[in-house]
Amino acid sequence: MAAADTTTNRIFLIPKVELNTRLSDALTARIFASEHECDIGPRSVWHHPGYQKNFYAILLREPRVAIGTIYVAGTNDHTDVSWWIDSMFRRMGYGREMVEVLASMLIVKGVTHIGPLAILGSYEASRRLAKQLRSHFE
User: Fold this and answer.
1) For every residue of the chain, which 3-state class applies, written as one string?
2) Per-residue exposure over 1-26, b if at least 16 CB sit within 10 Å of its own CB, e if not
3) How does pLDDT run across 91-108, given as a tens digit for each residue?
4) Which pTM does this prediction carry?
5) Are 16 and 56 in contact (CB under 8 A)?
6) 25-61: per-residue pLDDT in tens?
């Protein structure tokens, strides 16, 4: 699958399996950085073979750097989605842009309904992003 691209955004998505070694290694290092040890995110399944085709990297256009991950799996009438954004890039509006690019990608793929978006803990920003994403599929 080609990368989801919307030229007006500062970010774009690319399947994990299409990342070059430099970006993949850098993203992996950030996922497993000590400051993310308590994050509920991709750490537990990032290297699991069964999950590889379902991960996308969130990339900045300039500079070209990976800032997070998205996991997408399921059928078009019940797609499960989760995301993680590196702490260095939170509270900069990238999450809102990620949701818009993700929603566009899912709609193009024929997704009509997303599953429950479980936000564990006190992640109010993620709750707002989940609401924003759901609004595209109501």
Assistant:
1) CCCECCCCCCEEEEEHHHCCHHHHHHHHHHHCCHHHCCCCCHHHCCCCHHHHHHEEEEEECCCCCEEEEEEEEEECCEEEEEEEECHHHCCCCHHHHHHHHHHHHHHHCCCCCECCCCCCCCCHHHHHHHHHHHHHHC
2) eeebeeeebebbbbbbeebeeebeeb
3) 999 999 999 999 999 999
4) 0.86
5) yes
6) 999 999 999 888 887 778 888 888 888 899 999 999 9
